Structures are given as structure tokens and as C-alpha cells.
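It is worth pausing here to work through a concrete case rather than discussing structure prediction in the abstract. The textbook approach is simple: state the sequence, then state the predicted structure, then interpret. We follow exactly that order.
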Amino acid sequence: MAEGTPNTSTSSDTTISGGHLVAKALKAEGVDVIYTLCGGHIIDIYDGCADEGIDVIDVRHEQVAAHAADGYARITGKPGCAVVTAGPGTTDAVTGIANAYRAESPMLVIGGQGALSQHKMGSLQDLPHVDMISPISKFAATVPHTERVADLVSMAFREALNGAPGPSFLEIPRDILDASVPLDKARIPEKGRYRASTRQAGDPADIERLADLIVRSERPSILLGNQVWTTRATDTSVELVRALNIPAYMNGAGRGTLPPGDPHHFQLSRRYAFTNSDLIIIVGTPFDFRMGYGKRLSPDATVVQIDLNYATVGKNRDIDLGLVGDADAILSAVLQATSGYGDTGAQGRKTWLEELRTKEQEALDKRAHLLTSDSTPIHPYRLVNEINEFLTEDSIYVGDGGDIVTFSGQVVQPKSPGHWMDPGPLGTLGVGIPFVMAAKQALPHKEVVALFGDGAFSLTGWDFETLVRFDLPFVGIVGNNSSMNQIRYGQIAKYGADRGEIGNTLGDVNYAEFARMLGGHGEEVRDPADIAPALRRARESGKPSLINVWIDPEVYAPGTMNQTMYK
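Step two, the predicted structure:
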């Protein structure tokens, strides 16, 4: 035991245990669910959660717990929380922590640890968790005393929301967690009093400068990225692009900011726009591989970058103006600043929008025959087009896969903000089932539709049973080509067909039978005409569902063929 810490795992009116302090701190942050896989190091947290009314969703793999906490944060705007045991429990969660780190998703992962009294003695599942996780988190620490448990939890949440959000990690040694201390000795930060507002609006002079750049621009374009949803800047973004007549492109969680059919919603003409714009505004998206490290932007354009993270602004590409802060606060201020101009130039941009709309239509016409293809095996474009037609205003779309999700990114358009979920820039496969879990648990009135590659589903698919157990229905589709096709294409191109299928070809698994075995709804589809009826039956079943759609393994997404992810 830590020195001076009573050896008891119970709480009373005058004492409180470490696990109950964790639960109180989670409650103060607004956390109403934890995702977990049990272990002897962490069970006092469950006892505390029961007292505080926090739901405990127990899963079959710690990676799922971490991804679900990430997904919960994206859907709700509140930090998510995963609780895992020591050693392999924590290392299993590392992939989920890393994914949240690259995706800027705020969450807290609490890991167990051997007792402090057995430090360096080789206790069960003892590993240097903090050293391992520090490089992929905003904050990582060990709780040194039971009195500090709630204090460290609040500190971890504060750091998770500092600047661009991300994951925090706490390990709590078993004797620290199980022990009880006098209530008057424990530091329990009060709700709403341990962190400040993150709505920073940038330099006022830069706000005025950006307003002037927009007003003087003839061919502006704006990219609305992840942070537009993170900062809940949807309404402001829509008001700005409509008032100033600016064509808008969306990526990541920014998809759905503008609904399909909106005159300022553009998707397929982005390369043309970024080549021909005189002003390009990048909101909440780094110049990483998805942006060609900034090289896809016209060298002649004035480039403005807005981001929560100072380190992101101007990274990989020079910019003309950078603003650091909350996207909603900054865009609100810019919109207000442009209202002082007699002529904002909005009317003069009508021709520019018409030019881009023509390019959009040309791209649509080029692939129209593939969207309605009757070929078998089923063309991936036909599958993703059927899914897009199936979505409603309330459908949250989850994409988990390589080549098939690359296809969907060109076709599937969420109809509301916050209704698109994908792994993010780490490209982590296996997020689908945990993202479904988080979305359906947080927003049970919403429909969740998930598209999986067969390789991606197999990574975390056993937690389909968790969805059945907790009655979390969703419509799931497996685009099944019995291959890790994104990698297969690259191998064939590089080494030839005779060596192109080494290590990437999977068995022919009918996932519909898997779903039925676990108590869900399952169907198999080989004819494209059967896709839509199967989707409707899955919706009507009221169960977790999987529709196994056999797609053509010899057809690849344009992004896969360009190998853009490796350039």
C-alpha cells in the first residue's frame, strides 16, 4: 500500500475509495457511459459508476472500448471514456488511443496498474504504460495517491481539451484505486470550475484581414474539415458561405455541414477549384497526406489556414495568413467583419459557382453508368450508390474499410452535420463496430448505417454480439471481395499478378451467417437488384444486422489506383 493509505475498498459518509472518486470525476465532466473490458485492477471503478448512474458497456476487446470512447466523443461533443485493465488490457487499447490522437478526438483512457507497494517487483500485468502512451496522447500520468484520483482525472480532461483535442491516459495502481481516504482529504474539483472556455477567436487584426481577402476575392473556395464539427461551427459555416457566395468542400467529420443539393455544396470538383481559386480557406484540416501535404493548392492562390492547433498552421506548406482558435468563433467574427462592407463581392461570384457546378456535373456524368451498373459480381459503385440513396436525414453513416470506403467517400453524402464517421488520418481499420456502438448508445433515436470492408470487419467484428446484448440495432453492410483490396492493387502493380496476392487474400466468409449466429439479422446479396430490398429489411428487423454483399474484386477505387495514401 502507498504510505498513509488505509487498506479498505469501501466508501462511507466520511470516506471514499479511489474507484468512487473516479466515478465522481467522470460525472462532473458529464460522462454518462464508460466502455470497458473487466480486470481485477479496475473493478472498484464499476462500483463507483453504479452509484453515480454511469452506464457500463462491457466489450470483448479493449481496442473496441477505446474506439467506442473515441466515437462517443465525436458524436456527443463530450469526452469519451474507456476503462481497461493493466498490461495487455492497456496495450490492447493503444490502437484506439493512437487513432483518437491523429483524429483529434477528446477522450480519457484509464488503465489499471499493479500496486505501488509492488513497484518494480514484477506484479501481474505490470508494464510502463505511461512511457508507452505519452507519445500518442495529450497527457499521460500515474495517480500517486488516492487523495489525488479525482484531481488527476479532471487534469486529464483539461489537457484532452487543450487546443486541438485528443486522448489522455491515466494509470491507477491497484492499491491506490481500492483504498479509501477521508472525504475531507480528497481533492474533488467542482463541475465547471476546473477548466476554461476553449473558444479562442484569433487575432482581431487577422480577422479583419481575412474579411478583406474574402471581399476582394473573385474565385474563393473553402474546405470545411473535422474541426468544423468539433467546434460545432456548422450553422456559422453555412451562414458564411451562403452570405458571401463561397463554394464549400467538406472532408472528415465536416461532411454534412451543407446538405446535398445545397447550391454551395461541392464535392467532385475540389481539385479543379484548388487549382483555379484565387483564395483558398482551409478550416480545421492539416496539410497531411489527404491534402497532398499542401501541394495540391494553387501556388498562385492566397492560402488561409484556420486551426485549433498552432503547430498545424503553416506546417508542410507556406501560407499567407494563419488564424489559431475555435472555428466557430473565428468564422463568426469574420462574417461580422464582412458585414461592414457595402459590397462583399457575393453577386460577382455567381459565374465562379456556375463554372464549378459544370465541373461537378461532368464528373457525375462520367461515372453515372457505374452507379447503376447491373454487373455481377456487384460493382462497388453500385453498392455505395444504393447506400447513399438509402440514407435518411437521421442516418449516421460509419465507414470502416479500405478500398470499399474509398469508393463510398466519393458517393455517400450524409444529409445532416455530424452524421459521417470514419477512422481519420491514421487509417485504422476496425473502428466500425465500436463507432456503431457509441453512436447508437449516445443517440438511440438515430439510425446508424455502417459499411465495412470484409477485412476491416473481421478485426473487431466479435463485438457484434455486444450490440445484440445491449439491444443496439443498426444496418450493417459488408462489401465482401475476400481481399484486402487496397493493398492487393498496389502489390499487383508493383510486383506483378503472380506475386500480387501474397498476404492479402482472405477466405470467402458469409458474414450474414455470422450475424444470425450471434442473434442479429443477416442476409446475403449477389444480385445488385437485391441490395435495396435487403437494406429495407435490415432496417425493419430492429436488430443489429449484416448484409453480406459480394462485390467485384477486380474493380478498384480511383484513390486506390492513384495510391494517394502513399504519396
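Step three, interpretation. Residues 350-371 form the longest helix (22 residues). Confidence is low (pLDDT under 50) at residues 1-8.
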